[in-house]
Amino acid sequence: MNVFSVLMAAVAPGISLLAYFYLKDRYETEPIHLVGKLFLCGVLLVIPAMVLQNSFMQEIGGDNHFTFAFFISGGLEEFLKWFVVYHLIYRHDSFDEPYDGIVYAVAVSLGFATLENILYAFANGISMSSLLMRALLPVSGHALFGVMMGYYLGKAKFMRSQERKYLLASLFLPILWHGAFDYILLVAANNWIWFMLPFMTLLWIRTLWKVDRANDRSPLRVVRGEEEFKIG
């Protein structure tokens, strides 16, 4: 495969998943330039994340699978993504319904996953089988962790009485799931598929349920319903 083909193959899964979750917004899609900005921020996070991970591995080592999975890999990556979404979009006027948190968190997560995929492709080469495997596992994994992050950010913003609790959930639950994902791959190196298949199935089921729940809680649902009633 030539350079352009490899690049397109590495980018396609992230863009496809972003489009999927973007279009799942039932009531008011987000400004595309803002989604693109968050996606680019996710891309830009990869290099500092790699630098910090290498520093931590030199300081504390990466031999302990639990430490690597939950702190050096999952913990650091999800914290950086959460930090960007919280500081750039949480108070933004465009974040005006619970599902918006999902869109923006997924955009950052898939920006991160896309550059990771590109670096992997150029470092290791890419085949149809490896492309499919990475689309089903690390790329979709980042998207699903982003849905979880965004879902609880949406709850935090629109349930102010429990804002602190849901903000903590928006950070620590993605870390927990991301860490578990990495831990399975590290510990079950030879038979990981038997653990990863039910893990990803459960994660997808929970994700789709959260997508529906976030849409159902949109304040725009009532407004649109009233408009349709008047028109009818």
From TrEMBL:
<keyword id="KW-0472">Membrane</keyword>
<comment type="similarity">
    <text>Belongs to the protease PrsW family.</text>
</comment>
<keyword id="KW-0812">Transmembrane</keyword>
<keyword id="KW-1003">Cell membrane</keyword>
<protein>
    <recommendedName>
        <fullName>Protease PrsW</fullName>
        <ecNumber>3.4.-.-</ecNumber>
    </recommendedName>
</protein>
<dbReference type="Pfam" id="PF13367">
    <property type="entry name" value="PrsW-protease"/>
</dbReference>
<feature type="transmembrane region" description="Helical">
    <location>
        <begin position="135"/>
        <end position="154"/>
    </location>
</feature>
<keyword id="KW-0378">Hydrolase</keyword>
<dbReference type="GO" id="GO:0006508">
    <property type="term" value="P:proteolysis"/>
</dbReference>
<keyword id="KW-0482">Metalloprotease</keyword>
<keyword id="KW-0645">Protease</keyword>
<dbReference type="GO" id="GO:0008237">
    <property type="term" value="F:metallopeptidase activity"/>
</dbReference>
<feature type="transmembrane region" description="Helical">
    <location>
        <begin position="166"/>
        <end position="186"/>
    </location>
</feature>
<feature type="transmembrane region" description="Helical">
    <location>
        <begin position="6"/>
        <end position="23"/>
    </location>
</feature>
<keyword id="KW-1133">Transmembrane helix</keyword>
<comment type="function">
    <text>Involved in the degradation of specific anti-sigma factors.</text>
</comment>
<feature type="transmembrane region" description="Helical">
    <location>
        <begin position="101"/>
        <end position="123"/>
    </location>
</feature>
<dbReference type="InterPro" id="IPR023596">
    <property type="entry name" value="Peptidase_PrsW_arch/bac"/>
</dbReference>
<dbReference type="GO" id="GO:0005886">
    <property type="term" value="C:plasma membrane"/>
</dbReference>
<feature type="transmembrane region" description="Helical">
    <location>
        <begin position="68"/>
        <end position="89"/>
    </location>
</feature>
<dbReference type="InterPro" id="IPR026898">
    <property type="entry name" value="PrsW"/>
</dbReference>
<feature type="transmembrane region" description="Helical">
    <location>
        <begin position="35"/>
        <end position="56"/>
    </location>
</feature>
<feature type="transmembrane region" description="Helical">
    <location>
        <begin position="192"/>
        <end position="209"/>
    </location>
</feature>
